User: Fold Gustatory receptor from Sarcoptes scabiei.
Amino acid sequence: MYKFCVYIMLIFEGVWLVEFINILRYNDSLNEIVIHFIEYDYRRIPSRIQTSLVRKFVRRSFISGSPLMILVQSYMMSEIGPNQFVYNVLFAFISSEYIRITSGILFALMFCYFFMIQFLKIKLQYLMDKIYLFCNNRINLRLRFLPRKFSEEYNEIYYEIEKFNQTAKKYFFFMEVITKTGVIFYLIFQRHQNSSNVFNMMTMIIIISVFLLENFLYSQVTALPDHNRYIFRCLTSWNARTQFHHQITRRSNAKNYIFLTNKIKSNLFIQSIIECPMGLRCGPAYFIEKLRHLEISSLTFVFVILIYKKFIWNMKPQ
Assistant:
């Protein structure tokens, strides 16, 4: 089990070093998306949606930082002395370094990724709501082509997701490798154990927590392709109705030429929505969508049952 921890630690340090060098050399796509969002006008998103997103981020930040806040508050109220405070900080640092091997990158980094995924999902959902209202308004059937603002906003969201995917897919793949190989090593390790102890229990809790985190994160990612397909269905339905509406109307050759040109642009945009899937990937392995998430959840359930069964079996008196 310790050899596996060393193996994971070496992979983690190698990934961190490569990404750190890429960021310093401005070769990472994360630089482009950070610069893009620095110049982003957040007034384009309604204030109620911004408030909901910030509240979720603040609540999860408070939960993750509560242990350190309690320790600092105890020191400020003189409930613990300076030596004890330093000892607790060092102990917490050493403990966090130990846990970091299997869960640090997944809980800390994925927390920031979760905020980014939520932000992109909210932007896409806001666009989906506007397109839904547009397509279900009978007055808009008289329009000759799709308004340019929809395609521009959609292309902007698609660009942001693709740039974020170039960085996130490597960490998703790294998390997938850790969870699957970790549970295999843990089951082999438990097979040679005659009894359960605190270390086995903590390892089991960490592995199950990582499994739950992975499935929760994937459940949020699957909303992106679902929203994308819903937008495609709405625009396809609107496009079919507008073609039927304008088919009975005669126009001159000049006006008909302009109408056909704009109509072709709208049709190409609608076709590109379904041909270019919007979402995130797990490295070179697979595209994260609802069906794939269902397969991963089923496999996760089997692994959790095996871990729990082996742990309970070792607790029985020999």
